[in-house]
């Protein structure tokens, strides 16, 4: 029996058929009109959205609000619970860098971080010596949306670059702040990717500009005190299929230009001894060759998959000759042990790797070659390696948590192997790890692959099929969903839910091959893995099909759309946040921000009839059919440049037209935000409370 009763009539989107023919195949899209023709300009000025489109989106929001009206009190309760688990006046442990240590803190009731510094050896909790460099709440005043990109101080600690986005469109404006006076200088640099790399003298910096299609196409060099129009073009990337970013080294000897797509890398480096020189090429882009660099004094350490190193290896090359022919192996390729990232310091080389599905940190003495791993005991856990802000140090920082263990922050001495606990995440409302169980189980996929599934539930939860379950999945771009502590999901678990993460193919949870087996022509493995996880949880009585609410966002939203088409009877409800569901149309439109860079992930249906047909076979929007769909909540952001608002809008219109069932299809469009939703920490909790209220309502627990 449906949990949704007495609903008003749902909006009916008008049809305006548009037919497109590719490779001799014609396809008609009746809801293509929802795509704003002026989307590039609208992302920067949302008020110019076409009136008919706005009217439809607002009607959808009104219908969604009516369907969820009886959960208002529940949403308030959930929000209060989640907020109660956050230490509102929390502060980070400052990171030492030169004469200072830098960090962030929040105040009670504050939505945004405040950036501060203290003297290097100052007391962390001594507010009398804490210098506030940037007050996020003050900067956000009067703005419906506001997101800070971060604060990056110059080597001499006199100035800092900071960036903000006040539309949700991810076009960031950069400002330069005088750290002594607290005032911003005259410099205003617009349409950037959000950050910059300082020159060593602190008088200039490099930054990335986004073009009209929201692609990082150019690197500029800005001199403090001059207008942006006078900035020098340092490098231009002509291929729209590549992402680009700029950064600096720890020892300020090089500016790195990182150019890459999802399978190919290229680095260009600029010596800071001559900032006007042409960036030099390290290793030219060769399809399938990936590499990333870090400084090492007289050498570069390079993480790469060259020469068949599928799970990556680390090589070194002389600073004066970093080209591929000079690469020398330092850490060999070991099949099944995936090296994820690396860092180098004066006396040590450090890397984060994944073995048997779990992360570990490995430290090597650069002089002796001796290695050791930092060990942990739990069955499933998450690690974060933040390293250090200084090159000449033996101390690095990392974080550890599990589904039951709150996050712990450690300083680790790589020479003495001493581990110092700096901070344990506080849960003001209380948390007893012993009340919960976390497990790692394996669901058999149709082709025999074992799909890891991480579970969290209360010890007193009855595992007889009666418990509702929120099953989360992503499965794209090689991204691994960590088994980390999440205070928000406790609001579900404490209501008897089993919280489950399906570590499906498309991520790197079980190595690089796990990723390759869930991309391009093998993308359907991702969807079958997720359904296999639902089958296993039903079979083993952790839950039952009717009580499973599936959730995924962005590429995970594509997953939601695919499984809704493939196995709608195995889910009681589906939450699809900023869902990439109109895959074929988007991959056929090379003007959209992410389309050319995404072809190595999904295939290029413009050039290839084979990939046209492959994508068409699973694209959620193209495969909506006359069948009974479960209750579905789709969430979009009006200024989202990654998954444009019209994808969920078109999908919902078609689902509502086709479904033969009685469950509602809901669309919530955030008219003042983009891909990440609300920017403030409590505003974001309100959104999570809304999503969880939908899950609880579907499960019949309201």
UniProtKB/TrEMBL annotation:
<dbReference type="InterPro" id="IPR023302">
    <property type="entry name" value="Pept_S9A_N"/>
</dbReference>
<feature type="region of interest" description="Disordered">
    <location>
        <begin position="1"/>
        <end position="21"/>
    </location>
</feature>
<keyword id="KW-0720">Serine protease</keyword>
<feature type="domain" description="Peptidase S9 prolyl oligopeptidase catalytic">
    <location>
        <begin position="484"/>
        <end position="700"/>
    </location>
</feature>
<protein>
    <submittedName>
        <fullName>Oligopeptidase B</fullName>
        <ecNumber>3.4.21.83</ecNumber>
    </submittedName>
</protein>
<keyword id="KW-0645">Protease</keyword>
<dbReference type="Pfam" id="PF02897">
    <property type="entry name" value="Peptidase_S9_N"/>
</dbReference>
<comment type="similarity">
    <text>Belongs to the peptidase S9A family.</text>
</comment>
<dbReference type="InterPro" id="IPR002471">
    <property type="entry name" value="Pept_S9_AS"/>
</dbReference>
<feature type="domain" description="Peptidase S9A N-terminal">
    <location>
        <begin position="12"/>
        <end position="424"/>
    </location>
</feature>
<dbReference type="Pfam" id="PF00326">
    <property type="entry name" value="Peptidase_S9"/>
</dbReference>
<dbReference type="GO" id="GO:0004252">
    <property type="term" value="F:serine-type endopeptidase activity"/>
</dbReference>
<keyword id="KW-0378">Hydrolase</keyword>
<dbReference type="InterPro" id="IPR001375">
    <property type="entry name" value="Peptidase_S9_cat"/>
</dbReference>
<dbReference type="InterPro" id="IPR002470">
    <property type="entry name" value="Peptidase_S9A"/>
</dbReference>
<dbReference type="InterPro" id="IPR029058">
    <property type="entry name" value="AB_hydrolase_fold"/>
</dbReference>
<dbReference type="InterPro" id="IPR051543">
    <property type="entry name" value="Serine_Peptidase_S9A"/>
</dbReference>
């Amino acid at each position: 029996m449906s949990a949704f009763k007495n609903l008003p009539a749902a909006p009916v989107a008008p049809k305006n058929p548009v037919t497109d023919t590719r490779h001799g195949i014609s396809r008609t899209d009746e809801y293509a009109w929802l795509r704003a023709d002026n989307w590039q300009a609208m992302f920067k000025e949302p008020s110019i959205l076409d009136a008919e489109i706005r009217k439809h989106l607002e009607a959808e929001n009104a219908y969604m609000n009516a369907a969820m009206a009886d959960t208002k009190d529940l949403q308030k309760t959930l929000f209060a619970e989640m907020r109660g688990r956050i230490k509102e006046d929390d502060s980070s442990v400052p990171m030492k860098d030169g004469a200072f240590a830098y960090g962030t803190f929040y105040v009670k009731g504050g939505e945004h971080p405040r950036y501060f510094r203290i003297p290097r050896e100052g007391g962390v909790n001594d507010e009398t010596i804490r210098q506030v460099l940037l007050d996020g709440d003050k900067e956000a005043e009067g703005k419906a949306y506001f997101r800070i990109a971060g604060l990056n101080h110059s080597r001499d600690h006199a100035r800092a670059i900071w960036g903000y986005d006040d539309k949700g469109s991810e076009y960031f404006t950069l400002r330069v702040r005088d750290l002594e006076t607290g005032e911003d200088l005259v410099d205003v640099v617009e349409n950037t990717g959000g950050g910059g790399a300082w020159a060593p003298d602190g008088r200039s910096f490099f930054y990335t500009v986004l073009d009209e299609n929201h692609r990082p196409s150019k690197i500029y060099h800005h001199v403090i005190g001059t207008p942006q129009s006078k900035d020098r073009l340092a490098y231009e990337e002509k291929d729209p299929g590549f992402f680009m970013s700029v950064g600096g080294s720890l020892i300020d000897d090089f500016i790195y230009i990182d150019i890459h797509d999802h399978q190919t890398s290229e680095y260009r480096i600029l010596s800071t001894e001559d900032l006007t020189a042409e960036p030099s090429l390290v290793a030219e882009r060769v399809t399938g060759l990936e590499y990333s660099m870090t400084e090492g004094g007289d050498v570069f350490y390079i993480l790469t998959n060259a020469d068949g190193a599928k799970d990556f290896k680390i090589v070194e090359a002389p600073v004066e000759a970093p080209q591929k022919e000079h690469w020398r192996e330092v850490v060999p390729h070991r099949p099944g042990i995936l090296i994820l990232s690396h860092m180098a310091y004066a006396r040590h080389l450090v890397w984060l790797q994944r073995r048997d599905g779990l992360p570990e940190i490995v430290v090597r003495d650069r002089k002796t070659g001796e290695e050791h791993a930092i060990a942990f005991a739990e069955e499933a856990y998450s690690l974060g390696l933040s390293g250090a802000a200084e090159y000449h140090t033996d101390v690095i920082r990392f974080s550890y948590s599990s589904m039951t263990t709150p996050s712990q922050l450690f300083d680790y001495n790589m020479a003495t192997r001493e581990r110092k606990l700096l901070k344990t995440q506080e849960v003001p409302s209380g948390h007893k790890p012993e009340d919960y169980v976390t497990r790692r189980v394996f669901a058999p996929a149709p082709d025999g692959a074992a799909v890891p599934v991480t579970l969290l539930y209360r010890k007193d939860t009855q595992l007889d099929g009666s418990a509702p379950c929120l099953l989360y999945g992503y499965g794209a771009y090689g991204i691994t969903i960590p088994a980390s502590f999440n205070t928000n999901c406790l609001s579900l678990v404490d209501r008897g839910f089993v919280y489950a993460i399906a570590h499906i193919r498309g991520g790197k949870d079980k190595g690089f091959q796990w990723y390759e087996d869930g991309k391009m022509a093998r993308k359907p493995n991702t969807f079958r893995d997720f359904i296999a996880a639902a089958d296993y949880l039903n079979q083993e009585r952790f839950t039952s099909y009717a009580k499973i609410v599936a959730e995924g966002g962005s590429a995970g939203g594509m997953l939601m759309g695919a499984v809704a088409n493939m196995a709608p009877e195995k889910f009681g409800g589906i939450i699809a946040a900023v869902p990439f569901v109109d895959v074929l149309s988007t991959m056929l439109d090379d003007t959209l921000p992410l389309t050319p860079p995404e072809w190595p992930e999904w295939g290029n249906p413009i050039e290839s009839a084979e990939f046209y047909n492959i994508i068409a076979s699973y694209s959620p929007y193209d495969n909506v059919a006359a069948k009974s769909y479960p209750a579905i909540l789709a969430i979009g952001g009006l200024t989202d440049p990654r998954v444009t608002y019209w994808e969920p809008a078109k999908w919902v219109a078609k689902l509502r037209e086709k479904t033969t069932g009685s469950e509602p299809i809901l669309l919530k469009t955030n008219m003042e935000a983009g891909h990440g939703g609300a920017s403030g920490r409590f505003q974001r909790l309100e959104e999570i409370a809304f999503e969880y209220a939908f899950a609880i309502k579907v499960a019949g627990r309201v």
